[in-house]
Amino acid sequence: MVVKFMDKKTIPNDTFGRTLQINLFGGSHTSEIGIEIRGLPSQLSIDKERIQHELNRRRPGQNNITTGRKEADLFQITSGLHLGKTTGEPLTITIPNIDTKSKDYSQFKTIPRPSHVDYPARLRYGDTIDLRGSGRFSGRMTAPLVAAGAIARQILHQQQIEIAAYASQIGNIHDPTEYTVSSIRQNVDSNLIRTVDAEFAHQMENLVKTVQKEKDSIGGVVSVRIEGFPAGLGDPWFHSLESDIAAAIMSIPGVRGIEFGTGFAAASMRGSDHNDPFVWQNGKITTKTNHCGGIIGGISIGTPITFQVAVKPTASIGKIQHTLNLETQSEVPLEIIGRHDPCIVPRIVVVLEAIVGLVLLDVLYSHS
Amino acid sequence: MVVKFMDKKTIPNDTFGRTLQINLFGGSHTSEIGIEIRGLPSQLSIDKERIQHELNRRRPGQNNITTGRKEADLFQITSGLHLGKTTGEPLTITIPNIDTKSKDYSQFKTIPRPSHVDYPARLRYGDTIDLRGSGRFSGRMTAPLVAAGAIARQILHQQQIEIAAYASQIGNIHDPTEYTVSSIRQNVDSNLIRTVDAEFAHQMENLVKTVQKEKDSIGGVVSVRIEGFPAGLGDPWFHSLESDIAAAIMSIPGVRGIEFGTGFAAASMRGSDHNDPFVWQNGKITTKTNHCGGIIGGISIGTPITFQVAVKPTASIGKIQHTLNLETQSEVPLEIIGRHDPCIVPRIVVVLEAIVGLVLLDVLYSHS
Amino acid sequence: MVVKFMDKKTIPNDTFGRTLQINLFGGSHTSEIGIEIRGLPSQLSIDKERIQHELNRRRPGQNNITTGRKEADLFQITSGLHLGKTTGEPLTITIPNIDTKSKDYSQFKTIPRPSHVDYPARLRYGDTIDLRGSGRFSGRMTAPLVAAGAIARQILHQQQIEIAAYASQIGNIHDPTEYTVSSIRQNVDSNLIRTVDAEFAHQMENLVKTVQKEKDSIGGVVSVRIEGFPAGLGDPWFHSLESDIAAAIMSIPGVRGIEFGTGFAAASMRGSDHNDPFVWQNGKITTKTNHCGGIIGGISIGTPITFQVAVKPTASIGKIQHTLNLETQSEVPLEIIGRHDPCIVPRIVVVLEAIVGLVLLDVLYSHS
Amino acid sequence: MVVKFMDKKTIPNDTFGRTLQINLFGGSHTSEIGIEIRGLPSQLSIDKERIQHELNRRRPGQNNITTGRKEADLFQITSGLHLGKTTGEPLTITIPNIDTKSKDYSQFKTIPRPSHVDYPARLRYGDTIDLRGSGRFSGRMTAPLVAAGAIARQILHQQQIEIAAYASQIGNIHDPTEYTVSSIRQNVDSNLIRTVDAEFAHQMENLVKTVQKEKDSIGGVVSVRIEGFPAGLGDPWFHSLESDIAAAIMSIPGVRGIEFGTGFAAASMRGSDHNDPFVWQNGKITTKTNHCGGIIGGISIGTPITFQVAVKPTASIGKIQHTLNLETQSEVPLEIIGRHDPCIVPRIVVVLEAIVGLVLLDVLYSHS
User: Fold this and answer.
1) Which of C172, C349, D50, D368 registers the highest number of CB atoms within 10 A of its CB?
2) H or E segment at B355?
3) Which residues of A touch C121 (CB under 8 A)?
4) Closest CA–CA distance from residue A25 to any residue of chain B (Å)
């Protein structure tokens, strides 16, 4: 082999969160995957059905535009919960991996799939890395994240903090409307795309199905909206709300960018237009516009927190591509067999809601 | 006062970095500001002139499109350096604050400036917060960041890792060309905007001066490019390279979004176009295209790391705006006196190069 | 109930280690207990038999002076190991809990056992805490620690770093000899007490059996010796070697004190006696005496690291004691039913070797 | 030079605390030394006189049994305090170094002083380390610790949490009495030793003066007592109260051991004697005895927290010793010139009170 995959000596801390802390464990084809959540207070009731509901929303095989892997995603809470209530100790959620095809993944060591982790993961961890089904890099790891997020969102919900996401763009079909959490919730699960407007849903579905027929994939944008988050939370500098949210969001495979409020469009605006004047409304301070996306100086101001997330087209496509044979150093054609999501946006919607829940609860606990 | 600014009890950890760790201290009008850098190895030579050079590039008052505050920004390294070499102990850099106008800032407590920290900072820290000159929220805090970044970049430079940024958009004037580090460096300091192309520089300068005359401000986009960063660094999930970089970038005041590689444009692309085929070039693996911006699965692949950063128009404008008087609950007109940067993009260019240097060195040390 | 057990809101980070990080999960009567180890490099071979060997040394029911709980302690590595080698990802070890008696523990809420966690654990976590079998406070949690420590010690062993511990005191029977790692290893498992000298073993065993017959318990001291740890590791101040070791050791239930080298006896010594003169031996720097226990200024000097650990007598005794009924506020007699270790020193020996292994490997990786 | 002092690549995180976090900076002969405290809430009044009072208690040159270095130890709070109140931002305290003798310390590189950091510090950080006056390893660094501790103790005091320490043993003169905080405070500053009983003070002073005349030094024990610390704070395992306290205490130069409550004496006790029966007293739960030193299962139980700390005799003695010349590899006689504390116990008393204050406030904030 011309390319040598060596080990790196130190593997740094990969915990997420300051007060509410999470760690993922397992991989695509290990016996189970899971998440450890530390920092949950004791005496909280946990609604397991809400967790399963969110897992079902994320689940593979839920319809014919998602991957065919069959996973019931029945989770277990193996510690930290007693008689339905949190104990205040680390809470561990595990989900078994059942449909782990015995397919040979070792070919991808020699012939790495384009825009896939086959090559960089080996560079990073060396030859011993378990890359069956993309191992720990697999989107499958978002299942425990979704379960943990469902717990966080239950707790936020009790404080009237609500998070909702939807597909606002698929390919070049873009719905520019800003929806409230309530409109998003009413509509997002009524279509395969997880968008809000029925007409846009129709167009987007058609696009995804066309792309799927062509053994190709397509990208999109997810819009996220948070209502009810208290004003005055977050910090300047390295734990600004935007920093904490962006770090979490950018950790989700397939995400390529994030913008808050008016985002990149602010680049062509003037201050006199972009500034959000403070106004008095229903006995509370708010702002006339919300170009800032609910955050100024890293701190929430009480208006809805809004951001948009760019999602790339799935790297795994059936269409013939070209890549490199690392042994022969020659370019080779590659046809990836198997069913893949032609567009991961609908499933990313569920994952983003979850991880944002974890971030916001961490911020809340960190400032209490 | 109708609005009550209370304290929050716990103020969480605001350290940045895992192995190379930084903390900022001081504020706009304290006697000095500074940064503490922990995790630097011993026995490194530090070139103080490079630090001063970068501080001068960021400095206020350097030309007539930056704020008029006069600061020589002469820094001191008060510990961690001995006979020109790092000792391996915490390295502390301090910069005195000299031009701290005794202007009255307390008015902004009652009449908060739109899109400014006057209101959220008090919500967060309560009445005792020192908000003279925006206190710790001030862009002035980027001076020690730039000094620290200059140290990090010296170390990276010894390993042929180079970072360069430039203004690729001001208002709606956009230069779509992708430049190499070397072309950026040759041109970026030859114009007030810190853009690369002379013709674009001319147009952008005119726009900024027009906006300035109108007592308004304008936003823009900064493009960042890193060459020479080794393949195989970064991690999946919470410390993906994108997460670490995004967290750092989103902590800089005025930044509203970040996108890696093709970024938001990937939303309308197909997988067959967006995937970057691996190819063999000059005895090394690389990719034909670089839509991924040099990062796959959170890990560097050895191609240039590229990302774009959205910068909002400066919130402080001379033009009359409307805001709220928190005592009377009535809307009031507001005219902010004093000279402000009509566009912070040229100075943000310098700051982003610095903070990216700190992030990359942290990643390097974390994986060594 | 007169005493109210409320919840505490924030539960802080309980991760141990800076580079090699561990977290425990589960409790005495949950379905499984486990440990997550983060920071292990990839490509290390793991000898599972060594792990099982150490688990067997710690195991309950191994002889008639340990608790009668029957646990095979067969462990599983559910992630982080692939084809016998570490992958560089989080390594998760789980051990099922089998012999979880359905005994009623709720009585101890009203009538807390003296010097037991029944009372403080509820004060800390509130009523929802799972205290069956003392829950997460149980000595049972040392099983995953021992498993993790066995991995750490394999890695240290490859660098000729060896750790050995033994009972140097039981009650007032004290063996003042300092033994080498090799003598400790040759003898420590040949007697129930895990002491070195056969004659002392005999006396100590007799004492433990006498105490056991009287339904009482007895304390002791464990001496720990580390050979081969490289000079020049550790830091001044908050991560001095002594700080890191002491923090780990003091986290083990039943430990009441730690002293390094000459320890408390140094209090009555003069500097001229206590100072360890540097001498040259076999081409290396060493010291004539080792009063410092191998550590100066928080940093290893290459001589054996030695410390002693005080272990209290087991709190669970069959003998009738007095305690409080929290409902009636009256003193009540208490007879604790069931078999308990009359002396936990022999099992603590195994646990201390394990946790010291984890600390030293963390130090090694942190300074690499 | 036969011995080569190389650098170590990674210098790990040396922050102390989870919620209230501190970092030290500077060294014995840098222009200033200081501490950064993060995690202090906003709106707290700080009494600067209390800080100076504690600094004066620790100060060198305060009497003829302390080192002759002349330092006024006038501190400055350079950020985090505004109009006498904390702002909630990082609080930075600096103390100038004035009396930095230009003496040549480089000789100690070749001829390391026994039981001093001359040798291990160079092994750890390499040749570039600034070891003038022992650099960052110097006891001088305890000055900013004492200042920070004085702030922590003011905050604890408002919640009726009081910490007091005293010398309970010097050489083999040992006062076995357990004193309350109030008796300690009444007496501790009335004698040079900082012990409680006048007769013991007299004996101990005589011993120290004798030792001083002989150009030697002597060790001792400091007893620490905390009253008013709320029950129910602390955690099992890695952040047990004992772990947090021990880690802090063991970071202070000269400390060789720590024991809680009955400590090492528990080794020879039976459970039936060592267990602390719960009793009802003045409407509160308490224990008849306090062998546990106020902590069970890592958690406070509301009784006084007590522990003892072993302090070694000062390594710097005037008496002729032997050490090694690293260049010639031969043993050489060494006479250390200059005045040194013949016994550091009286100054350690002040330092321990300070650092315990920082630990307890961190625990308090972490559980709020």
Assistant:
1) C349
2) helix B345-366
3) none
4) 11
* Distance (Å, whole) CA D333 – CA B324: 78
Distance CA D261, CA D293 (A): 4
Q: Which chains form contacts with chain C, at 3 or more CB pairs under 8 Å?
A: A, D
Q: Which residue of B has its CA nearest to A335?
A: B272
Give residue limits of the domains in chain C.
21-366
Dihedral angle, C-alpha B28, B32, B33, B36, nearest 10 °: -160
d(CA B220, CA A269): 8
- CA distance to partner chain D, nearest, from residue B28 (Å): 10
Beta carbons of B79 and D36 less than 8 Å apart: no
User: What are the percentages of helix, strand and coil residues in chain D, rounded to 5?
Assistant: 30, 25, 45
Q: Outline where chain C has alpha helix (H).
A: 48-58, 107-110, 118-125, 142-157, 181-187, 198-213, 241-249, 271-274, 345-366
Name beta bridge partners: B167.
B222
Give the H/E segment covering residue B154: helix B142-158
Q: Give the range among A65-74, A219-228, B55-64, D132-141 with minimum mean pLDDT.
A: A65-74
* Token digits of residue B290: 């670089």
Cα D291 from Cα C252, distance rounded (Å): 17
Q: How far apart are CA A208 and CA A195, in angstroms?
A: 13
Chain A interface includes C89 (CB < 8 A): yes
Q: How far apart are CA A103 and CA A122, in angstroms?
A: 19
Q: Considering only A34-43, B24-33, C334-343, which range has the smallest mean pLDDT?
A: C334-343
Q: Do residues B159 and B229 make contact, with C-beta atoms less than 8 angstroms apart?
A: no
* Spatial CA neighbour of C244 closest among D13, A291, B345: D13
Is the CB of residue C13 less than 8 Å away from at least one CB of chain A? Answer: yes
Q: Which of B10, B355, C104 is nearest to D21 (CA)?
A: B10
Confidence of residue C203 (pLDDT cuts 50, 70, 90): very high
Percentages helix, strand, coil for chain A (3-state, rounded to 5) are 30, 25, 45
**What CATH number labels D21-366?**
3.60.150.10
Residue ranges in chain A modelled with pLDDT below 70: 1-2, 6-10, 102
Nearest to A272 by CA among B133, B109, B348, B113: B113
Those residues whose C-beta lies under 8 Å from the C-beta of residue C234, and which sit 6 or more positions away, are: C240, C241, C244, C295, C298, C299, C300, C363, D120, D124
Q: What is the pLDDT, as a whole number, of residue B9?
A: 62
Secondary structure tally for chain C: helices H, strands E: 9, 18
Q: What are phi and psi of A310, to 5 degrees?
A: -85, 130
| A317–chain B Cβ distance below 8 A for any pair | yes
**Distances B336 to A39, A132, A281, B69, B207 between C-alpha atoms, Å:** 44, 60, 24, 15, 21
Asked if residue A240 belongs to a known ligand binding site, the reply is no
Binding-site members of D for NADP(+) are 58
Beta bridge partners of A16: A22
**Highest-pLDDT range among B337-341, C290-294, D127-131:** C290-294
- Give me D359's structure tokens: 């630990």
Question: CB B38 to CB D365 under 8 A?
Answer: no
For chain B, helix, strand, coil in percent to 5 are 30, 25, 45
Per the document, the length of chain A is: 368
Read off the pLDDT of each residue in C78-86 and give the average, rounded to a whole number: 93
Does the beta-carbon distance from D115 to C232 stay under 8 Å? Answer: no
The residue assigned the tokens 């970071």 is D251
Does residue C103 have a pLDDT over 80? no
Rounded to two decimals, the pTM is: 0.96
C residues 40..59 contacting A (CB < 8 A): 40-43
In the numeric block, which tokens belong to residue C243? Answer: 């700080």
Characterise A68 by phi-psi region: left (phi > 0), alpha (psi -120 to 50), beta (else). alpha
For residue A23, which residues of chain C lie inside 8 Å, CB to CB?
A: 23, 36, 38, 90
